[in-house]
């Protein structure tokens, strides 16, 4: 049934392949990828399928439910026209150049072109070792596969640029993992996610070639990327390369502004995890802000320095872009235009962020300095005591902004969002009240209509996000072979801005048990 998928494998057709056909770990020079087949698995079983992604690929629901579907998207069966390969890339990890990394457990099966003419690469994550697997096994466990699957789709429905996920399949095999790298490995169920994106090219694909001084191939990859992923940018050449870098900067700024809007913390913003298309990619130890805390990172591997904490993401993205800029230096041969593009990133991000924060507060357009002061005071007030970010912004939309509102009514948006209301002291209460009064006053002064404000706020402040503990609950059940909650969450997260009265529990504050539970507030890179 899947034979209707039409493949057009441009990446492997136009770019140089690793000449070595055998699958063993190695440094791959002078090539952009290595052909490698997925490793067959014992008993593939579909856990969940995202119907919108299937639709995008012209795959019918009946096909998704078929045995063939699970066979294909676990890597057991290759379709006619597939040409599986793993990409070669490097990356800066936690600020240090890590040399060759590459797709250690991701295999692109092929590039499809759908009926609408859209090019979409299909990639299995966890389908066995590749030449880039280094010392690891090429596999993925159920918990991280479910997290990646659900989060990619949740992000898409939130309006955040992201790679998509077609499905997640249990392999029927187990994988050994030492979750917290503390000498306690245990067998876990294995799974494979099929990711979908126009391309999976990362900053690191360019960095590795520049680091090896392979300038011809660097140019070739960039020309290929321009022609394939950025048509209309102009003929290959210095000016177009600069324009392209600027475009990557702008797209990255848009992506990060969205992360800040919805409270997403990527967790591992290494340059190998940055897409040149400005898509969120590689969902590992990510997390969602529950109580607003810009210093928070879910990643225990980053516990010491919090390099990738929520509040640092805009600056980290800029640092990563600078690494990409460095990689382009041999082609541009002038740092000035690249530096200018980088400062454009800052400007562009600031503008997006201000507009977004203004909208989160229900204003039509951002007005300095009044909005800037309101926002900065709010971000302090939110940190006085633990305050749930999604709940607060949803509640704020319901605030009575008339001058007659009583103190209790004014405090309601905060009260509903507090984790420990009893810890709020008098001074903090007064400061909070002062902020709400000021906010309500600003709304009145600008003549923002209540209905208009509510609609605007509810369209940018999600009610339903993939709270860390919700993902964990779905995983707990899935580990018992019950995929009901995975599918229910997928369904709820399709409409994150809508009130879903029978799904209120999914909008609840993090329960106390989830505070210290691994998988909820603490995750490692082990996946
Ligand atoms: P990440 O930080 O998860 O994006 O991974 C960094 C690098 O490690 C990438 O090159 C991955 O392909 C590789 N990697 C991570 N986990 C595994 C694994 N289980 N087997 C092989 N390679 C892996
Ligand atoms: Mg990665």
Question: How would you characterize this protein structure?
Answer:
The protein is of the alpha+beta class. The protein contains 17 helices and 11 strands. The chain has a 5-stranded antiparallel β-sheet with strand order 2-8-9-7-6. β4 (90-93) and β5 (96-100) form a beta hairpin. The mean pLDDT is 97. The structure holds adenosine monophosphate and magnesium ion. Adenosine monophosphate is lined by residues 101-105, 132-133, 136-139, 268, 270, 272-273, 282, 284, 525.
Gap between N and C termini, in Å?
32 Å
Helix content: 40-55%
β-strand amount:
5-15%
Instruction: Compute the average pLDDT.
Output: 97
Shape: globular
Key phrases:
17 helices; alpha+beta; binds adenosine monophosphate; two-stranded antiparallel ribbon; 527 residues; binds magnesium ion; five-stranded antiparallel sheet; 11 strands
Tell me the layout of helices and strands.
Blueprint lengths: L9 H5 L18 E3 L9 E5 L1 H6 L4 H4 L2 H6 L12 E3 L2 E4 L2 E5 L5 E8 L5 E7 L16 H17 L5 E14 L8 E12 L5 H9 L3 H15 L8 H25 L1 E2 L21 E2 L24 H20 L2 H26 L9 H12 L7 H8 L10 H9 L10 H21 L3 H11 L7 H12 L4 H9 L35
Antiparallel strand pairs: 1-3, 2-8, 4-5, 6-7, 7-9, 8-9, 10-11
Helix pairs in contact: 5-16, 6-7, 6-9, 8-9, 8-10, 9-10, 11-14, 13-14, 16-17
Bound molecules: adenosine monophosphate and magnesium ion.
The site of adenosine monophosphate has 18 residues, from loops.
């Amino acid at each position: 049934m899947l034979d209707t998928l039409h493949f057009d494998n441009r990446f492997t057709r136009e770019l140089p392949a690793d000449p070595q056909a055998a699958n063993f770990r190695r440094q791959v020079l002078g090539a952009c990828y290595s052909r490698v087949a997925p490793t067959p698995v014992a008993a593939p079983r579909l856990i969940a399928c995202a119907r919108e992604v299937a639709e995008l690929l012209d795959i019918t629901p009946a096909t998704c439910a078929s045995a063939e579907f699970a066979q294909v998207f676990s890597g057991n069966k290759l379709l006619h026209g597939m040409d599986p390969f793993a990409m070669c890339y490097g990356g800066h990890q936690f600020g240090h150049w890590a040399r060759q990394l590459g797709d250690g457990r991701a295999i692109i099966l092929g590039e499809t072109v759908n009926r609408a003419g859209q090019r979409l690469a299909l990639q299995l994550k966890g389908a066995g070792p590749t030449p880039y697997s280094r010392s690891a096994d090429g596999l993925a466990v159920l918990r991280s596969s479910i997290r990646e699957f659900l989060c990619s789709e949740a992000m898409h429905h939130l309006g955040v640029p992201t790679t998509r996920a077609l499905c997640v399949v249990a392999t029927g095999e187990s994988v050994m993992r030492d979750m917290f790298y503390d000498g306690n490995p245990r067998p876990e169920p294995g799974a494979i996610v099929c990711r979908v994106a126009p391309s999976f090219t990362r900053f690191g694909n360019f960095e590795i070639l520049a680091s090896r001084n392979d300038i011809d191939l660097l140019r070739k990859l960039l020309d290929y990327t321009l022609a394939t992923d950025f048509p209309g940018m102009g003929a290959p050449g210095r000016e177009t390369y600069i324009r392209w870098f600027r475009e990557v900067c702008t797209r990255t700024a848009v992506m990060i502004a969205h992360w800040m809007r919805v409270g997403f913390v990527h967790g591992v913003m290494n340059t190998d995890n940055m897409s040149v298309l400005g898509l969120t990619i590689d969902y590992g130890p990510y997390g969602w802000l529950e109580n607003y805390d810009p210093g928070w990172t879910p990643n225990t591997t980053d516990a010491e320095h919090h390099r990738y904490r929520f509040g640092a993401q805009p600056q980290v993205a800029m640092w990563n872009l600078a690494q990409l800029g460095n990689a382009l230096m041999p082609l541009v041969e002038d740092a000035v235009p690249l530096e200018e593009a980088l400062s454009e990133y800052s400007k562009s991000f600031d503008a997006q962020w201000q507009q977004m924060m203004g909208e989160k507060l229900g204003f039509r357009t951002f007005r300095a300095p009044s909005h800037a002061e309101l926002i900065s005071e709010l971000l302090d007030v939110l940190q006085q005591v633990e305050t749930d970010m999604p709940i607060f912004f949803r509640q704020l939309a319901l605030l009575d902004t008339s001058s007659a509102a009583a103190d209790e009514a004014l405090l309601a948006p905060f009260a509903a969002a507090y984790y420990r209301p009893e810890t709020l002291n008098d001074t903090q209460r007064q400061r909070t009240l002062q902020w709400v009064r000021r906010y309500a006053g600003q709304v009145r002064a600008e003549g923002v209509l209540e209905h208009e404000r509510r609609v605007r706020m509810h369209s940018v402040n999600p009610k339903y996000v993939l709270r860390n503990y919700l993902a964990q609950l779905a995983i707990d059940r899935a580990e018992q072979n019950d995929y009901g909650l995975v599918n229910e969450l997928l369904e709820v997260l399709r409409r994150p801005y809508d009130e879903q009265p029978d799904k209120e529990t999914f909008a609840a504050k993090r329960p106390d048990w989830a505070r210290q539970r691994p998988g909820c507030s603490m995750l490692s890179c082990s996946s």
